[in-house]
């Protein structure tokens, strides 16, 4: 009798409790679809940007406002390359599965990632490998990098022309020159935007290019990932 009770208790703790936890927190978790509105995945407020950019040149203002309203295009040209998915992730992902789990859970809650999907959510979903790296000067914080340059010759980045998205960073000499030109009393400030990349929504027509696979489930990035060739351009445009 005692042996039977002990066995049942062990079975309950070792099997039923974990199974119930999995069903409730994983299977019962609502899936965020690819048709999620752009406004739902970004904290950027169109009305505020419209007001603040009123004095900007029309072409730059329209580019930014259309991007916030409709999502930004990644610049991928289908005639440039034949895509091939790669579902085997980098070693850093398999070495730190708890980090990947926490990242995806956080991004799903923030509505920045769609999924999880048991099957391909769209027939042409392109899946790229990813890895994780620790953030500089932020103990315990990690960043997920989507390798959109893999596989070589058949990746998303291979299909993005370089010239339209070339970037020239502002140099210290440029800042000094601006201070001299503006004269005494000029003030300069530098600030860092929290999760800057993850604030920028991707156009729904390009979402299928940003697929990921983890634990036999598919996910799709709905905002700008680290690893996209044109990423820095979005943050520097118009500066």
UniProtKB/TrEMBL annotation:
TM spans (from-to): none
Recorded hits in InterPro entries, A to Z, give: DNA/RNA_pol_sf (IPR043502), Hepadnavirus_pol/RT (IPR052055), Rev_trsase/Diguanyl_cyclase (IPR043128)
Q: List, alphabetically, the Gene3D superfamilies matched.
A: 3.30.70.270, HIV Type 1 Reverse Transcriptase, subunit A, domain 1
UniProt-listed PANTHER family = REVERSE TRANSCRIPTASE DOMAIN-CONTAINING PROTEIN, RIBONUCLEASE H
Recorded protein name is Uncharacterized protein
């Amino acid at each position: 009798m005692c042996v039977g009770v002990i066995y049942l208790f062990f079975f309950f703790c070792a099997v039923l409790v974990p199974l119930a936890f999995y069903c409730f927190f994983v299977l019962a978790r609502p899936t965020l679809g690819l048709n999620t509105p752009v406004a739902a995945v970004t904290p950027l407020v169109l009305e505020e940007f419209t007001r603040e950019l009123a004095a900007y040149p029309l072409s730059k203002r329209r580019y930014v406002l259309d991007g916030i309203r409709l999502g930004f295009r990644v610049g991928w040209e289908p005639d440039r390359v034949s895509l091939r998915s790669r579902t085997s992730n980098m070693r850093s992902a398999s070495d730190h599965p708890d980090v990947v789990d926490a990242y995806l859970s956080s991004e799903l809650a923030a509505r920045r990632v769609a999924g999880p999907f048991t099957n391909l959510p769209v027939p042409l979903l392109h899946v790229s490998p990813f890895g994780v790296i620790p953030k500089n000067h932020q103990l315990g914080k990690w960043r997920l990098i989507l390798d959109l340059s893999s596989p070589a010759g058949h990746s998303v980045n291979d299909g993005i022309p370089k010239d339209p998205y070339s970037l020239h960073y502002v140099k210290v000499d440029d800042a000094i020159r601006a201070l001299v030109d503006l004269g005494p009393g000029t003030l300069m400030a530098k600030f860092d935007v929290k999760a800057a990349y993850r604030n920028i929504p991707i156009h729904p027509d390009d979402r299928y290019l940003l697929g990921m696979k983890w634990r036999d489930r598919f996910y799709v990035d709905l905002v700008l990932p680290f690893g996209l060739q044109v990423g820095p351009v979005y943050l520097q445009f118009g500066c």
